[in-house]
Amino acid sequence: MASSFAKMARQAEQTSRTVQVPKQVLDAPPLTIHKLGDQVLRQPAKRISKVDEAVRELARDMLRSMYSAHGIGLAAPQVGVHKQLLVIDLDPENAATPPMVLVNPEINTTSAALTTYEEGCLSIPGVYLSVVRPSEAEVSYRDEQGRPRRIKADGLLARCILHEMDHLKGVLFVDLVSDELSLNEELKDHGFHRDDVHSQR
Ligand code: ZN
Questions:
Q1: Which residues are known to be catalytic?
Q2: 77 CA distance to ligand 1 centroid (A)?
Q3: Centroid of chain to Cα 164
Q4: Least packed by Cβ within 10 Å: which of 84, 127, 143, 180?
């Protein structure tokens, strides 16, 4: 997700020190983030069978690329890797706050209550549009050490996890936008094509 979602890191308590990297903008980030229109973003991701050093190194490279793009969340398919891996850092301005790494995340429950929020995405730079999603989500996943974890998220964290988990299914936030007029305008203004949206509404 893109960085207009600033602040609110209170729920990101999981310690991911083994994958922590400096929160800085690199001249040459290690991974290229694919953009809307690239079919790579539409392929579903596969489960990770073992959380090993290669997975942690991928997570580090994803974080380096995410911080370089001023993002707060990134899913592996966005860098062309079809694995169920997400990195999230809602507090990118604070060097001490560890990022979250989610391997094979699964939604257990979502709240009936919905909220509308303006989302952005590193794969659709410049485009910000309102999306309706559940306000809360309980998610199970493995952390960067392969330990099973469960989190009950609300607010920005829930929003970010649900956005990133959609990437694992090849779904992009613009697919969920119901305001057709704004969608067309925003995409056009930023050089993207309406045909590349797979509307789910
Ligand atoms: Zn995204």
A1: 164
A2: 10
A3: 3
A4: 180
